[in-house]
Specification:
TIM Barrel, 8-stranded parallel sheet, 5-stranded antiparallel sheet, alpha/beta, Oligo-1,6-glucosidase, domain 2, binds 1-O-alpha-D-glucopyranosyl-D-fructose, binds calcium ion, 3 domains, Immunoglobulin-like
């Protein structure tokens, strides 16, 4: 494994709209992030991934870009961006920007031109097709409910939008469009950006013969028709040769539809991306109907996902590890126990995240154990995926209370409530009216309460980042799960040359006993979320430990 900064980095994800409001208008912004750079540095992370900050009508949280060359006015100015980048670099922190290249906003000038006429020079920047009588060109469903095709009266054709109708898909088959993409990537890389998170990169090559989908399982439709298209490797290879190879830049591809079998199509050492986000664990509790069709998940499957994906990158390629982000519920609510064992399970999840093989991505607020929020009506949601999902749910007679159950379990609003800094007004996020309601528990869960509390989740997180940075085995060591015969007892070794560590995680509300075979390794505990007990073989509920087994 060749060493690289992005393999050794711990990445902190900042959702700008909800992180810190610097000017009192209730919306997070770049000046707010600048105010908190010392806090970010204090976490012991190495890079910040910013969700999109480009001009956008904000139909989908900024993932609908109307100008790739300017900053969203609510977030600030290009001067603010330059100051933020300089502030990060002064603190030896890298910046990873989130580029949305599978689609633009329908308010982008490219699309405004494209829809004007069939022979407009921008027509083929997007996918336009005649319908079949009154229906769309095929039966593809959108991620956000309804058809993936929108009728446009002006030229009497449909355009493709895998996401919202305000997010028309860009046509990467068009080399002129690809040149535009290369140009905008160079613009940001010339400014000194250190990494690119490439949104839905798996769909830049689709089945452009547009056959009907033959499955009702949405994630299967993604895999077969939207992602992993015939020219995917070619498009990535071209962008790498024409742009990325000319900079010291890390590229991480976000990709619904990427599988352990096809992941190396994305990660060729000379012609591919550096790493990908996979969704093995993220979609395992989604039924055929997707996010709002939740099904039970098992610890057996959860552990298997880590093994499956580690095997995919054993010899080559590189993975990322995340347990939550702006698209998923809060990790302590989803995988832990956010009431009885809130403190212990949040620390256990930080232990897993920071001891696993692959670049760890921590979502802002998870370092203090922020939990899911609770919507009492769909109208409180600020997420188009939820709003559209409700529109679709009503068509099939699902009641609001049934739908809200799915939303409060799996919806994206859970992760987008403002960061909780202190117990004061609006948790110190804003001096104005926040764009989104805070989680009511902000007077209990906030940075200020944890900053000087030795047993806080925040300080445990800092302990884990220090441990990872001090022990290369946690970055470059192998991952070897230990079969405990007990689904909720998650044990694994990390090994490299003379170094060896044992990670012990009790994913349950019960006391658990460690298997006899590991007793010889329980002599040198480096970190744990309970005081060291007399009988090391017994694990308390949600107990996490890391041992050095030199
Ligand atoms: O998400 C794409 C993706 O992976 C989806 O499965 C995602 O989970 C989304 O919530 C639909 O369920 C990326 C961004 O992370 C997401 O915020 C955007 O909404 C989406 O692309 C469209 O740009
Ligand atoms: Ca603001």
């Amino acid at each position: 494994m060749n060493p690289a900064w992005w393999k050794e980095a711990i990445v902190y994800q900042v959702y700008p709209r909800s992180f810190k409001d610097g000017n009192g208008d209730g919306v997070g912004d770049l000046r707010g992030i600048i105010e908190k750079l010392d806090y970010i540095q204090s976490l012991g992370v190495d890079a910040v991934w910013l969700n999109p900050i480009f001009k956008s009508p904000n139909d989908d949280g900024g993932y609908d870009i109307s100008d790739y060359y300017s900053i969203q006015p609510e977030f600030g100015t290009m001067q603010d961006f330059n100051e933020l980048l300089a502030g990060l670099h002064q603190r030896k922190l890298k910046l990873i920007m989130d580029l949305v290249l599978n689609h633009s906003s329908d308010e982008h000038p490219w699309f405004q031109e494209s829809r004007k006429s069939k022979d407009n020079p921008y027509r083929d920047y997007y996918f336009w097709k005649p319908g079949k009588q009154e229906s769309p060109p095929n039966n593809w469903p959108s991620f956000f409910g309804g058809s993936a095709w929108q009728w446009d009266e002006l030229t009497g054709e449909y355009y493709l939008h895998l996401f919202s109708r305000k997010q028309p898909d860009l046509n990467w088959e068009n080399p002129v469009l690809r040149d535009e993409i290369n140009k905008l990537m160079k613009f940001w890389l010339d400014k000194g950006v250190d990494g690119l998170r490439l949104d839905v990169i798996s769909a830049i090559s689709k089945r452009t013969d547009f056959p009907e989908t033959d499955t009702a399982d949405f994630n299967e439709t993604i895999r077969k028709f939207y992602a992993n298209g015939p020219r995917l490797k070619e498009f990535i290879k071209e962008a790498r040769a024409k742009v990325w190879n000319h900079y010291d830049v890390m590229t991480v591809g976000e990709g619904p539809g990427i599988t352990p079998q096809n992941s190396m199509d994305y990660l060729d050492e000379h012609h591919g991306l550096n790493m990908i986000f996979h969704f093995g664990h993220m979609f395992m509790d989604q039924g055929p109907g997707g996010r709002f069709d939740p099904i039970p998940w098992s610890m057996k499957d959860f552990k298997a996902v880590f093994k499956t994906w580690d095997d995919a990158f054993l010899e080559k390629g590189w993975g990322s590890v995340f347990l939550g982000n702006h698209d998923f519920p809060r990790m302590v609510s989803r995988w832990g126990n956010d009431h009885m064992y809130w403190n212990e399970s949040a620390k256990l999840l930080c232990t897993l995240l920071l001891s696993m093989r692959g670049t760890p991505f921590i979502f802002m607020g998870d370092e203090i154990g922020m939990t899911n929020t609770r919507l009492d009506s769909v109208s409180e949601s600020q997420d188009i995926e939820t709003q559209n999902g409700w529109r679709e749910a009503q068509k099939v007679g699902i009641t609001e209370s049934e739908f809200l159950k799915a939303v409060n379990y799996a919806g994206r609003d859970n992760a987008r409530t403002p960061m909780q800094w202190n117990p004061g007004e609006q948790a110190g996020f804003t001096t104005g009216i926040p764009w989104m309601q805070l989680n009511p528990n902000y007077n209990r869960i906030h940075v200020h309460a944890q900053e000087d509390e030795t047993n806080s989740i925040l300080n445990y997180f800092r302990g884990m980042t220090q441990l990872r940075k001090a022990n290369p085995v946690l970055t470059y060591g192998t991952y070897r799960p230990f079969d405990t015969g007990n689904d909720t007892l998650f044990l694994f070794f990390r090994e490299r040359q003379q170094e060896k560590m044992l990670i012990v995680l009790n994913f349950s509300n019960q006391v658990a006993n460690l298997p006899n075979q590991v007793i010889p390794f329980l002599t040198n505990r480096l970190i744990g979320n309970y005081p060291e007990g007399k009988s090391p073989q017994e694990l308390q509920p949600w107990e996490a430990r890391v041992y050095s087994c030199k």
